[in-house]
Amino acid sequence: MEVSISAAVNVSVLAMAVIFAVLVILIFTIQLLVKLMPYKAPPPAPPRRKTAASASSEDDHVAAITATLAMHMGKSPSDFRIVNISQR
Question: What stretches in the chain show pLDDT beneath 50?
Answer without folding.
Answer: none
